[in-house]
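Example record

One chain of 251 residues, shown exactly as stored in the release files.
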Amino acid sequence: MVLANHIVGIIPARYASTRFPGKPLADIAGKSMIARVYERASMATTLNYLVVATDDERIAQAVKQFGGNYIFTNPNHQSGTDRIIEVMQHFPNSTYFINIQGDEPFINPKDIEQVVGILKDTNNPCVATLASPIRDSQMLFQENSVKVVLDKQKQALYFSRSPIPFSKEPQKLMSQNFFLKHIGLYGYHRISLQEISQLPVSELEKAESLEQLRWLEAGIPIRVGITENYSTAIDVPEDIQRAILNHQKEL
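Predicted structure tokens for this chain:
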């Protein structure tokens, strides 16, 4: 039985990706991507339970083969968060849930532990996530690289695909670690997740294609930790070799 203060780690994994069908089963130096994500997440000392949330039998069988846990979820979910909300119903006595990206085969376990720490250190229900300093001007202007600005309490003010805040001297601000790239690892208090489940799609969310803006518009606080860890996400097949090269020491 999973108890109230236990931390449930959830890895959403769907087969039907537009840009990379079957991505969770892609081979990453001899192991499937979902196996590598699960293996790395298992190293996080703060997780009490880890499960893959999937809508596909092939992924479930792959998880079963390496001895992992899985739960089948509705194939019509529009986001990973929707899948997390469904899985939450399987753990009625748990308070904290961590959404671990299924396309980051070299995720740093310390990042998961940091997100858990933010949740536990916060008195009020919230969402927790991470960001890292941007030191590459190309990344600053890439729309796939989501940027975030924070208040003095390290709570998110806004997320955008555009460079924020605007500056006439971006290189100068970059040298001061002023620009932050959002890392798509989320932790949720159960109350916040229940509130999110009731929210309609918002206009800001539609404009930027970023679901976390729906939460901000509704007044749900998003606390942000800063990390120096970089994990290469796999969006298209060509990213696999780059990820392997970037993480040779971790293979």
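Notes: The longest helix spans residues 109-121.
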